[in-house]
Every structure is written in structure tokens, then in C-alpha cells.
Amino acid sequence: MTSKQAAIKVVKALQENGYQALLAGGCVRDMIMDRQAEDYDVATDAKPEQVIKLFRRTLKVGAKFGVVIVMLGDKQIEVATFRAESDYADGRHPESVHFCDARQDALRRDFTINGMFYDPVTDELIDYVNGREDLEKKTIRTIGDADERFSEDYLRMLRAVRFSTQLGFAIDAAAWEAIGKNASKITGISGERICAELEKTLVSPNRAVGAEMLIESSLAERIFPGFDEKCDQQAIKTLAHLPLKADFFLALAAFFAGCESDFACERAKILRLSRNQSKHLKFLLVNRGKLLDAQMPRADLRLIGSEEFFDDLFALESAIQKAQHPHDAAALEPLKKIKSRLVKIPKPLRPEPLVTGDDLIAIGAKPSPALGRLLNQIYRRQLEGQITTKGQAIKSAQEKLKAKKPQK
Ligand code: ATP
Ligand code: MG
Known about the structure:
Among the domains are: 1-134, 2-Layer Sandwich (Beta Polymerase, domain 2); 290-344, no CATH class; 357-404, no CATH class. 51% of the residues lie in helices and 9% in strands. It has helices at 3-16, 26-32, 48-54, 102-107, 131-136, 146-152, 155-167, 173-182, 191-203, 207-216, 219-223, 229-240, 248-255, 261-268, 275-286, 298-305, 310-324, 333-344, 357-362, 369-384, 390-404; strands at residues 21-24, 41-44, 58-62, 67-72, 75-81, 117-119, 124-126, 139-140, 170-171. The strands form 2 sheets. The protein has a 7-stranded mixed sheet with strand order 3-4-5-2-1-6-7. A two-stranded parallel ribbon has the order 8-9. Strand 4 (67-72) and strand 5 form a beta hairpin. Bound molecules: adenosine-5'-triphosphate and magnesium ion. Magnesium ion (MG) binds at residues 26, 38-39.
């Protein structure tokens, strides 16, 4: 059973029990556009406790606010009672929700294209907000007065940019003007919510256009203070040269391509990235330029080539080179050389070390920072292919230890 089939089953069950039930929001937009929907949401006039009674397996995630998850097979369908308040205005749940009819539920939604309902039983589109027309005009328009709607929830500014990027639609003039006017207020929105919208914008293949909107609206500079003109042009050009499918952190690194690494990592903290995500971003930013040294020692090549995010670094460097030298194929030569050197190296790139600290202590080395350095030197010789057996590694260590002994 697909998510769509599960949602339609839920709608039918609600309708058979005398309730009004419809598919709502993003999935309706995506169905009309023949686009794969992320999730299928159901809106109904049944109250949460009535929904809970009707289905065997439910989760009361936001029942107080009118939202129940219905579980069918391995699918989870969000069933929301028609309500007048938005989900998380200013990052919080509303104090109380006011249940209402379908029309008012449509009016609380952000954009006209996101405000439609569809009845899969009668195959009827229920459009109180002119969403269909705006879909045809490829326009992102707020439901109601733009300034008012953005002031209710400033995240909607980023959502407008996100939908415009994903769908390739224009943001209508009044909405665009209101975004410019309210951009500074984006700092009142939680980093997690900002990050989620930024991610959807930057993973879209249309990301360069999205970044341009973020910059022109000044949202970029408001979210990342100090993101100046020097950053702007590099960001747009570099994003334009990423592969169509790019991970968020690769795209975020490209967005910061014109910035100093320290500045970018500091500013990215606002997004509340996990430790691993920050590490990913930092790796890409601080290693910029390294792959342009096609003659780098084999040991360094093996070490960087075996890094977890090496492929992203390679894609980032390629995009930076293309952005900075648009008509110069030679700019990509070092990267090609790096690739061809890497494929010729036997795998694994980062093998187990031939000797351990204990092996060296057994031949008389003292536990100390110098031991760590010695191990590293021997490992590099191993990666260079200069030593291939444990015996050779021990011998090499003995020579180095002897050379280091002070002359009496
Ligand atoms: P996606 O395909 O990315 O899931 P979506 O349109 O389904 O896009 P969601 O964030 O999943 O977007 O929200 C579902 C629906 O809830 C939206 O289509 C919109 O009608 C409404 N909505 C979501 N966030 C807001 C908001 N901040 N203000 C008003 N309405 C919102
Ligand atoms: Mg959705």
C-alpha cells in the first residue's frame, strides 16, 4: 500500500462514518502538478477523539491541536481536524485551537497553491483560495494580505523562497515586497525551522535560483550576519555548478564558497546542526583548495581520499573551479589527475597500520608524544608504499629510534 492509497482509505473510512474528509495542502498541489508528494495529509471535520475511535492504531501526537496520526500497514497518515490556527506560529503551538470548517482551514494555510482540498471519492477539487489558478500561473501568493501573513509566522518567508525554488514558480510581487520588508524578523524563528527550509531550498536542483532569492531578499544576510557581496556572487555561481543531486551539506558549503571557513562555521551554528553535520560542513570548507595540488604526496592523497566526505569535497572543488574559471577547461585538470591517481592506488586507501604503539614499546620506545609522531612517520612510509611488511616497519622504527638517541 502506498501512502496515497493509505490516505485515501482513511478519507473513505471517515466519509463512510458521516464525516467530511479530504486530502489537503501540499499533496493536492503535487497531485495536480503530477509531482511526487512528500506526504498525504487528511483534513476532516471529525474531532481528534472521533478519529481515534474510528481507527485501530492511532498516535495522539498533537490531538490537543487537532492532529492525530493514523497507522495503516506501515504507513502513517496525518489526520487534522479543520482548524483556524496555524501549526507553529512563532515556533510554538497555539495556546488553544479553534475547530472550524474546511473554508476557514484553507484560509489559515500559507500560500494559495498549498490551500486546496481534494475529495478522492468524488474526484472533486475544493479550492476556496484560487490555488488552481495560481498553480497554472506558476505563482507563489499568500492567502490574504502578504504583510499580515508573514507577520503571523516569519518562517513563511523562507517557505515562499523554498516553494519558488522547488517548483520553479515566481513569488508574486506583493509577497516579494513583504518579504523584503520583514526579512530582519527571520531571526525570531528557531534555527531548526530555518534549517529545514534552507535544506529543502539548497537540495533542490534549482538551488542557485533559490540562493539568489535568499540574497536579494536579504534573508541570507539576516540569517548569517556578515554574509556580504563577496559571499553572494561566489555562492550563486558555485551552487550553479554542483551536480543536480547534492547533499545539503555539500550545497551549504557551496553557499559559503566565498566566505572564510571560520566565519562560515561560526555562522552555521545558528542552524543547530548535529556534531556530525558540523563536521561534514567544516571538512568541506577547510579542505578547499587541497585537491588542486595534483602532485600531493601519495600518503596525503590516500588519507584525504579515504575521508568520509571526500566525494563531496571533490564535487565542491569542481564546482568552485568551474565557477571561478568558467571558460578554462584546464582549471579541472588537477582534479582529473587526482581522480586518476586515486583509482590506481590499491584498496583500502587507509589500510591497518603495520605496527602499533605496543610494537614500538616492545623494541624500546617510551610512551610519549614522540611515539605518536614516530608511528605517524612509519604509517606514512607504509602509505607511500616504501614499506610493506611488519618486519620492514619495525626495522624502520629501530633506525629512527637509533638516529634519535643522543650521542654520548
Ligand atoms: P512538502 O512537499 O515539502 O511536504 P507541503 O506543502 O506539504 O510541502 P508542509 O510543510 O508539509 O508543506 O505543510 C503541509 C501544509 O500545511 C502546507 O501545504 C500548508 O497548507 C500548511 N502549512 C505548513 N506550514 C505552514 C505555515 N508555516 N503557515 C501556514 N500554513 C502552513
Ligand atoms: Mg508535506
